[in-house]
Design goal:
Layout (H helix, E strand, L loop, with lengths): L1 E7 L3 H12 L4 E5 L17 E2 L2 E2 L3 H11 L12 H18 L5 E3 L5 E4 L5 E4 L1 E3 L13 E8 L8 H10 L6 E9 L10 H8 L2 H17 L5 E4 L8 H11 L4 E3 L7 H16 L3 E4 L1 E9 L2 E9 L5 E11 L9 E3 L2 E4 L4 E5 L6 H9 L10 E4 L2 E8 L9 H4 L2 H17 L1
Helix pairs in contact: 1-8, 1-11, 2-3, 3-11, 6-7
């Protein structure tokens, strides 16, 4: 097998760079074990959510400040000041246009939405799926919020606890009153997972029944101004489901950001799959990248193994891109060290803390080193045709700073420009 570019990893970084390259006319093979960490995500898109624990309101202004004042930050790979902001804006704009046919996302570069999660906490993000945008608490003002929970979900949230946590994190006056209703959603007759219910709601008949049930509830609770529901509004037909709901309910309705398992994350994965396949990317699902065969200063081939059959293939390419994520993806933890298996190199040692989350945070900051063109470094010297993007770069605790999706898209775009310039 042979391609112009071989991309390793099927998350948002891998799909982004693979799609851009394929649209440029290059032959691209994408190797992925499966859905990956994107399926576990909330489905929203963060550029920069926190700095030193403080909420970021303007992510672009904060990005400019970070790359100027912290040259060791992973975002500094994009460039200094305005150049980093330019790359971020360009990458997000391209992605929004490319995925629009499959999934509608909304937001702006320069203002974080503040969106509620299913447990009542708040998450800053620059972009979100259209079903989430009305949950932006920046737009709340004296709301009477109706929280709907679904009895037939296996993961049945405590709406009253959610309400107390949410209000405690808001500026006084944002929410004046909260009402709670628990209903059995149309579709599956038995208790089911969020994904099963979301697939049922993909059918317009089921979605219409669900919307009618909510309309009946509103008639019995006067004064409701906004409605929060679990993130189950379809998987492949979400735009139609959401339009049905908005037509039947003349109030802002929004999905809460999800915990695991994440329907919006799986929804995003499905959209990415269709986006990259339609662009002409050849996708090898169920294959694990095993070894990069390096000769001199370049990678000649990549060995991959099928996870079920155990069969092995070698893929030749002109260029290769690592986009397999961090320790939830391609990187490994061996003997208190973070290890890169394709090149067989130890990236750094992990400091063990008594608190597990501190240890994890430390490990996430260890990643693949790259030069200014995003080429992978070994012993300080770049491999001529091996690039890296996304979470594999390490350098930051993605969750604590809220930069996961922004890092994936912007570094993928920079790899694309390095390969095509």
């Amino acid at each position: 097998m042979k391609a112009d570019v071989v991309v390793i990893g099927g998350g948002i970084a891998g799909r982004m760079v693979a799609t851009l390259l394929a649209k440029k006319g290059l032959t691209v093979i994408l190797v992925t074990r499966g859905l990956g960490a994107t399926a576990l995500s909330s489905g929203s898109f963060d550029i920069l959510g926190f700095i030193d624990g403080r909420l970021v309101r303007n992510p672009l202004e904060a990005l400019n400040r970070v790359v100027t004042n912290s040259p060791g930050h992973v975002y500094a790979l994009l460039g200094r000041g305005r150049e980093a902001c330019r790359i971020m804006c360009k990458s997000l704009g391209l992605f929004k246009d490319m995925i629009a046919r499959y999934l509608k996302i909304e937001g702006t570069f320069d203002k974080n939405m503040i969106l509620p999660t299913v447990i009542g906490t708040l998450k800053p993000c620059a972009y979100a799926q259209e079903t989430m945008k009305s949950g932006d608490v920046n737009s709340f003002n004296g709301e009477h919020l109706l929280i709907i929970t679904l009895k037939n979900l296996v993961l049945h949230e405590d709406s009253e606890l959610f309400g107390r946590i949410l209000v405690s994190g808001l500026t006084p006056g944002k929410v004046e009153r909260i009402s709670h209703v628990s209903i059995k959603a149309s579709g599956p007759s038995l208790t089911c997972s969020p994904l099963t219910l979301a697939k049922a709601l993909d059918k317009e008949k089921v979605a219409n029944r669900f919307a009618n049930e909510i309309s009946k509830i509103l008639a019995s609770i006067p004064g409701v101004t906004r409605i929060a529901i679990p993130p189950v509004l379809g998987v492949d037909n979400v735009h139609v489901v959401y339009e049905i709901l908005r037509e039947n309910v003349s109030l802002p309705v929004f999905e809460l950001l999800s915990s695991v398992p994440s329907v919006p994350g799986i929804r995003l994965c499905r959209a990415l799959e269709r986006m990259s396949r339609d662009a002409g990317v050849k996708i090898m699902t169920g294959w694990e990248a095993m070894k990069a065969h390096v000769e001199g200063n370049v990678v000649r081939e990549l060995s991959v193994r099928h996870e079920l059959s155990g069969s092995i293939k070698r893929i030749a390419g002109e260029d290769f891109v690592i986009a397999y994520g961090h320790i939830l993806g391609g990187l490994q933890v061996l003997d208190d060290s973070v290890y890169e298996p394709l090149l067989g190199m130890t990236l750094g040692s992990i400091t063990i803390f008594t608190e597990p989350f501190k240890t994890l945070s430390f490990a996430l900051k260890i990643g693949v080193k790259v030069d200014g063109d995003m080429r992978v470094l070994i012993g300080g010297k770049p491999i001529g045709n091996l690039y890296a993007c996304g979470a594999a770069l390490g350098g930051v605790d993605l969750a604590r700073e809220g930069i996961g999706m922004g890092l994936a898209l912007s570094t993928a775009y920079k790899v694309f420009t390095s390969l095509t310039s």
